[in-house]
């Protein structure tokens, strides 16, 4: 029987889409090679439109609800463990390393799932101001976040690039280059986890072809690169970002509470006390 | 109602001694500038030249950064509790010499002595006390020991709260183990220079605090210096953007506290007399030279006429004049340049069709002054409703529903602060949740505290100053 090969597409607004440009690039694995969408500027703008809406729908859900949705992602991955392991092995990992990576990824998801309804208790606080005032530093998600993922072959690493911002309520455009097969494979489980459309968009392509546009786009609130950028890219990104005071995070923490700190806006509210 | 006549009550300036010429403060001592260039700092209330200050050039900034690098070697090995003690000592000295600082601040910057004495200076001391106490608790501040300072921090501060902005920047930077090169504003360097003397007096290790005075070119040298690991800036959004751009390929820390055009929303169920007081304080505090000033008054339509009537009456009681007079509410505009900017924006507002009310009062013949001003009949598209005027000018807009109030309030590139006035608690929380602003004052305005984080959303910048959150502006945190 002829074996059927999967076509990987970008995951935007809850749908699997090809690049409007029709362009693709090739990722060659050990036994298989894949043609992936080469995300164009237009694709990216569509993703931002979706992420804007996704931010609202993600934030309409209670944090309790968001916890369960993120937890569901771990259930989905566990259920499809074999297919991930197979794909990771095709990327060059040993079977045991691949299994270990899935274990780590699941643990990471479980950790962030539980954080989704607790983080504000860890990062916000009352402030003991001198005077008769109630003063609280409430915590809010930054908005639409674009992440550039590392090229390391690891589902855990991939997840650590979007869960910090996603778990606290940001919507995320997650962009992968060399490991995009993993990301677009993950899209299937993201799709089955009840994440609202647009809360997490997964794209593949060549960052050098889109970063000028991304760093200029005023509706992307922050750009976080989990991959080391060369000086030239960093220069362009900072220059473009400065036109709208966009937040730029180069190699942010991927671990623990510090991983979410860049994506928080602190809103401090004062009110007098009295009778 | 006519204004009551007050006798003058002038704070004596004999307590301050101003040198005719100042150098930079580098490596623990004052030094003559390499540039050999000086500029004059002028009292905006008398136009009298107070002193000549050095204009730092590339070599001056180089020396200061090198000194801060050397200082970092010592400071990073200084135990946290020792760092704390230096800051406590500075706080104490500031309290002791508070009156001297307050008079000098009012002379150099033009703000009323009432404010420099009762607001700026107590807050300055409080900031040093507050952050002193964090110096030996950083490991428990954010639940991780994996924290470290940036190293040499370049700090650029504005002229509206010269010494307080120094305190906001220097106290947390030193508490977290960084060393500092500070560039004060061109028009208000004198209190920073006096602060440098205190650093000498407490025996702060050499190179931990460095001060380079000058103008925009000096700031630019500092921002572009390769030896800086982090830049902290407070000032206009346009300069903030210049700085973010200038960071370029350097992978360094950056926090920006930029401009604002805060909405002060008054609902029809507010306590109107209190709201009038809050609105007056919101815009006329410090001549309106406040980035978080409540410069857009948003009135619910049905209370517009009544509120404006009360507001104009209250405004008429404001006393404009000599900053050193203890009865003065509104001091001098900080500089000729700023006065021209305010004048031009107000003229534009009138030409656009805004209705202008200015209080009747005599203005001194010398110095830079502007009458407290109120615009009504304004369209949201007018520049006076969009641009930061940074002066005693309030612009009024109206709304019908809470949804509309929020929409108008957020319809700006800025997001620094906002005010909400209503007696209904649920409406405060509903509104506060929806406002894009880093600081929200409900039934109050322009309150500050070292423990309370301050900083903006959107183009008002990023990073927070003050509070536990303020530590993050000076620490690299992993895990």
How would you explain this protein's 3D organization?
The complex is a heterodimer of chains A (275) and B (479). Chain A is an alpha/beta fold and 275 residues long. In chain A, 43% of the residues lie in helices and 22% in strands. In chain A, a hairpin with a 4-residue loop joins β3 and β4 (33-37). Chain A is globular and about 80 Å long. Chain B is α/β, with parallel strands linked by helices. Chain B has 15 helices and 20 strands. Chain B has helices spanning 58-75, 80-96, 98-109, 113-134, 138-141, 162-175, 190-202, 216-223, 237-247, 272-284, 304-316, 336-352, 402-410, 425-434, 467-471, and strands spanning 21-22, 24-26, 29-31, 38-42, 49-54, 147-149, 152-156, 179-183, 209-211, 230-234, 253-257, 263-266, 296-300, 355-358, 373-376, 393-399, 417-421, 439-442, 461-462, 475-477. In chain B, the strands form five sheets. In chain B, strands 14-15-16-13-12-17-18 form a seven-stranded mixed beta sheet, with helices on both faces. Chain B has a six-stranded mixed beta sheet with strand order 9-8-7-10-11-19, sandwiched between helices. In chain B, α10 links the parallel β12 and β13. Chain B is globular, with a radius of gyration of 22 Å. At the A-B interface, β6, α9 and β12 of A face α9, β18, β19 and α15 of B.
Question: What can be said about this structure in brief?
Answer:
The complex is a heterodimer of chains A (275) and B (479). Chain A has helices at residues 41-60, 63-79, 81-90, 95-115, 119-123, 155-167, 180-191, 207-216, 231-241, and strands at 10-12, 15-17, 24-28, 33-37, 125-126, 133-141, 144-148, 171-176, 200-204, 222-225, 247-250, 264-272.
Multimeric state of these chains?
heterodimer
User: What are the secondary-structure elements of chain A, in order, as H or E?
Assistant: EEEEHHHHHEEEHEHEHEHEE
Helix content of chain A: 40-55%
What would CATH call the architecture of the largest domain in chain B? 3-Layer(aba) Sandwich
CATH topology annotation of the largest domain in chain B: Aldehyde Dehydrogenase, Chain A, domain 1
Percentage of residues in DSSP E strands of chain A: 15-25%
> Can you summarize the main beta sheet of chain A?
5 strands, parallel
Strands of the largest sheet of chain B, in order across it? 14-15-16-13-12-17-18
- Please tally the helical runs of chain B, counting DSSP H or I stretches of 4 or more residues: 15
The structure class of chain B reads alpha/beta
pLDDT < 50 stretches of chain A: none
Look at the structure and give the CATH class of the largest domain in chain B. Alpha Beta
Name the CATH homologous superfamily of chain A: Aldehyde Dehydrogenase, Chain A, domain 1
> How many domain modules of chain B?
2
Mean pLDDT value of chain A: 97
Biggest sheet of chain A: strands side by side, in what order? 9-8-7-10-11
Strand content of chain B: 15-25%
* Number of strand elements of chain A: 12
Greatest interface: A-B, 38 and 52 residues
What is the count of structural domains of chain A? 1
